[in-house]
Design a protein that fits this description.
Oligomer: single chain
Radius of gyration: 19 Å
Helix content: 40-55%
Order of helices and strands: HHEHEHE
């Protein structure tokens, strides 16, 4: 009885931790997939930014509640990624937020653009983890206009 009382809380902590980590990786995969498929749609000539954002939203709806106010779907200019002196350490959330928004229908052939989806983890976590604070999960895809 005593051994069970000592071991079960530890066992359930690990079990719920495994479930939560699995769910966050599934969410990140869904965000990356939604961003990639939306960006692939955006490389065409007749596609608009609204269509790109709608496709990303529809894909997200299949796995998470994409109607949350905190879900951010961004279509940004990624021409700065062509600079070989760009350091990967400088690519944080502020860097991506500072990139200019673009309309994919106005991009010239060969222009880089990024579709980035940001979701606060506290909004999509299974157990409602309050200890993670303001951590965001994101997915993104960079493509060239064809």
């Amino acid at each position: 009885m005593v051994e069970t009382a000592v071991v079960l809380p530890i066992f359930f902590t690990f079990l719920f931790g495994f479930i939560e980590f699995g769910h966050v990786f599934m969410t990140i995969h869904t965000l990356n997939s939604a961003a990639r498929r939306a960006a692939r749609l955006g490389i065409g000539d007749q596609t608009t930014t609204d269509q790109v954002e709608t496709l990303a939203h529809d894909i997200l709806d299949s796995a998470i509640d994409a109607d949350l106010e905190d879900v951010i779907i961004q279509v940004k200019d990624a021409s700065s990624f062509d600079d070989i002196t760009l350091e990967a350490e400088s690519l944080d959330d502020e860097y991506y937020a500072a990139l200019p928004n673009v309309a994919v229908e106005d991009l010239e052939r060969g222009a880089l653009f990024i579709v980035r989806i940001v979701v606060p983890y506290g909004e999509v976590g299974i157990l409602g983890p309050r200890w993670v604070g303001d951590i965001n999960v994101y997915g993104q895809a960079v493509m060239r206009k064809e």
